[in-house]
Amino acid sequence: VQLQASGGGLVQAGGSLRLSCAASGRTFSTYNMGWFRQAPGEEREFVAAISWSGGSTYYADSVKGRFTISRDNAKNTVDLQMNSLKPEDTATYSCAAQHMTQGRYEYWGQGTLVTVSS
């Protein structure tokens, strides 16, 4: 599985951005998908995840109520809608894929930079 993230940019605090991750391959619907972020000098952290069917979603407490993860298995995409952005959301965001039978994320896309100005 190859992953390509896009949609990052510069936005003012309180604004919104939508990230998208496009996946290659015909087995996308068998992968749970996640978004992670890493700020400069910080460890990578979990942001959100969605199950292979889209039936279950999970969020970090820091983004709950502001971010929404969704997927379209027909288009092989997973999106992250980010609303009410805060300066502390500034980071490089990456998408990752975890096969439904595996316990870890196996595939990672390159990151897309999100910068939130105050």
Instruction: Summarize the amount of helix as a percent range.
Output: under 10%
Terminal CA distance reads 37 Å
Per DSSP E runs of 2 or more residues, the count of β-strands stands at 11
Strand content: over 45%
Structural class of the secondary structure composition? mainly beta
How many helices does DSSP assign? 0
Shape: globular
Series of H and E elements: EEEEEEEEEEE
Overview of this protein structure:
The structure is a single chain. It is built from no helices and 11 strands. It has strands spanning 3-6, 9-12, 17-23, 31-38, 45-50, 57-59, 67-72, 77-82, 91-99, 107-108, 112-117. It is globular. The mean pLDDT is 96.
Q: How is this structure best summarized?
A:
This protein is mainly β and 118 residues long. Helix content is 0%, strand content 52%.
Topology:
Layout: E1 3-6, E2 9-12, E3 17-23, E4 31-38, E5 45-50, E6 57-59, E7 67-72, E8 77-82, E9 91-99, E10 107-108, E11 112-117
Parallel strand pairs: 2-11
Antiparallel strand pairs: 1-3, 3-8, 4-5, 4-9, 5-6, 7-8, 9-10, 9-11
